[in-house]
TrEMBL record:
Listed CDD domains: ALDH_y4uC (cd07149)
PANTHER family in UniProt: ALDEHYDE DEHYDROGENASE (PTHR42991)
Similarity section: Belongs to the aldehyde dehydrogenase family.
Pfam families: Aldedh (PF00171)
SUPFAM superfamilies for the chain: ALDH-like
Name under which the protein is recorded: 3-sulfolactaldehyde dehydrogenase
Reactions listed under catalytic activity: (2S)-3-sulfolactaldehyde + NAD(+) + H2O = (2S)-3-sulfolactate + NADH + 2 H(+)
Top-rank taxon, per record: Bacteria
Record-level Gene Ontology MF annotations: lactaldehyde dehydrogenase (NAD+) activity
InterPro entries: Ald_DH/histidinol_DH (IPR016161), Ald_DH_C (IPR016163), Ald_DH_N (IPR016162), Aldehyde_DH_dom (IPR015590), ALDH-related_metabolic_enz (IPR051020)
Limits of the Aldehyde dehydrogenase domain: 16-473
Length: 481
């Protein structure tokens, strides 16, 4: 029996609205239509921006305690409805139900941290009398919200990556317009519902669903949008940067993350961490492990153990509590990964494990001896494929790690402080995880990369700083009553 497909609404200026045109959101596992979602027009986006500006101006002195209250209420709402959010994430995206629950828990933390950081938003006193002739001046700086934030989010973390933009924006006192990934918009709409239920002032949040080609330019180029926060691919990020004009922007553009395993590493720690880092979320993870460089003495032992543990992963129904890997986000993405692997094998790479596709499902795949010119070495695979290569020493490992146009995070497994600090200093990345894979992050820490991995930093505190500006205040004491 065909389940009745629900029709969703989008949130514009505090009102839930339909659109004459819709698009289908489907479960990538079986292509079942989950919902019909509004396909917004440029007029919808312009309306959302206009109402966001009006809301921001009306709440220019929005008290900190009110912002904290709203965010705390959102966190409680998420916790109360955790299973509903998790089932939505698992239905519209690639994550297993266990991974989806983990994402909801992280989103709760992101919102809680946003509430905590709202009360810590402060400036500093300035010693004006350090300059001769300014002995009678005192002052300070404080941070103020910049206005309307435009946010564009990807499919792979459809709840928490939206929370990472909305939470800090509200904590800082900004209004925000979110354009979620068209393939996974339902989680963002649920989060908007949570903010509505939490008492967010009308118009401070809009979630506008639809095609980037239709509504993207209106968001990124509008003069009333003072900052764009974008998470997505490098090509899209470069395109936005070329059109955005003079305004603030934060961009996280993915990676091709390396992990180094030295001969003094504890393989009982390194192997499972790297297996998880390579294949969790079906490899659709910006800091997922893509390249592993293993020192010669432990290469065979590492590879053997890695293959054994990867072969035990259960690929199947993402709703099953025992499944480790579900489908990729779409069959065309699985076909793309399949073609990249085939191309690498034609180049001379050796397929050690996996390499088979079944519809949108792609097996956990391990390659070795991949030529450095192969696409799969230099680009972001964004799928369940990992390259494992041997190296002589940490110097060679770092050199190979840096030979790509990405630099988000890296990992190194070693018992040597000297080797760890060498990697910390020489790896051209935004974060180095020692005795963890590249796939480690907490939602408070600064998060971002260098080179093609993006501009600026996320993480709640860093996002709040990016979404505010400092204002300097100076009092000339002479003449004051």
């Amino acid at each position: 029996m065909q389940t009745k497909v629900r029709t969703e609404r989008m949130l514009i200026g505090g009102e839930w609205v339909y659109s004459e045109s819709t698009f289908d959101v489907c479960d990538p596992q079986d292509n079942q239509v989950l919902a019909k979602v509004p396909a917004a027009t440029e007029a919808h986006m312009l309306d959302a921006i206009s109402k966001a500006k009006l809301a921001f101006e009306a709440h220019g002195t929005w008290p900190t305690h009110d912002r904290i209250r709203v965010l705390q209420n959102v966190a409680v709402y998420l916790e109360t409805h955790l299973e509903r959010f998790a089932k939505t994430i698992a239905s519209e995206g690639s994550k297993t139900i266990r991974e989806a629950r983990g994402e909801v828990r992280r989103a709760i933390q992101t919102i809680q941290i946003s509430a905590e950081e709202a009360r810590r938003l402060s400036g500093e006193t300035i010693q004006f009398d350090q300059h001769p002739g300014s002995e009678n001046r005192v002052g300070y700086s404080y941070r103020f919200p910049i206005g309307v934030i435009g946010a564009i989010t990807p499919f792979n973390d459809p709840l928490n990556l939206v929370a990472h933009k909305v939470g800090p924006a509200i904590a800082a006192g900004n209004a925000i317009v979110v354009k979620p990934a068209s393939i996974t918009p339902l989680s963002a709409l649920l989060l908007a519902e949570a903010f509505q239920e939490a008492g967010l002032p009308k118009g401070m949040l809009s979630v506008v669903t639809g095609s980037g080609a239709e509504i993207g330019d209106a968001l990124i180029t509008h003069p009333d949008v003072k900052m764009i926060s974008f998470t997505g691919g490098l090509d899209a990020g470069e395109s936005i940067a070329n059109r955005i004009g003079i305004k603030k922007m934060n961009m996280e553009l993915g990676s091709n993350s390396p992990v180094i395993v030295l001969e003094d590493a504890d393989l009982h720690v390194a192997v499972p961490a790297c297996v998880s880092g390579a294949f969790s979320a079906v490899g659709q993870n910006c800091i997922g492990v893509q390249r592993i460089y293993v020192q010669e003495l432990v290469y065979e032992a590492f590879l053997s153990s890695f293959v054994e543990q990867a072969s035990q992963l259960i690929v199947g129904d993402k709703r099953d509590e025992y499944t480790d890997m579900g489908p990729m986000i779409h069959e065309r993405e699985a076909k793309r990964v399949e073609s990249w692997v085939a191309e690498a094998i034609l180049d001379g790479a050796e397929l050690i494990h996996g390499g088979k596709r079944y519809g949108a499902f792609y097996e956990p795949t391990i390659l070795t001896n991949v030529p450095v010119t192969s696409k799969i070495v230099n680009e972001e695979i964004f799928g369940p494929v990992v390259i494992i290569e041997r190296v002589r020493d940490v110097q060679e490992a770092v050199e190979k790690s840096n030979q790509v146009n990405y630099g988000l995070q890296a990992g190194i497994f070693t018992g040597s402080l000297e080797a760890a600090y060498y990697a910390i200093q020489k790896l051209d990345v935004g974060g180095v995880m020692v005795n963890d894979s590249s796939d480690y992050r907490i939602d408070f820490m600064p998060f971002g990369g260098v080179k093609g991995s993006g501009l600026g930093r996320e993480g709640v505190r860093d996002s709040i700083e990016a979404m505010t500006e400092p204002k300097v205040v100076c009092f000339q004491l002479k003449g004051l009553a």
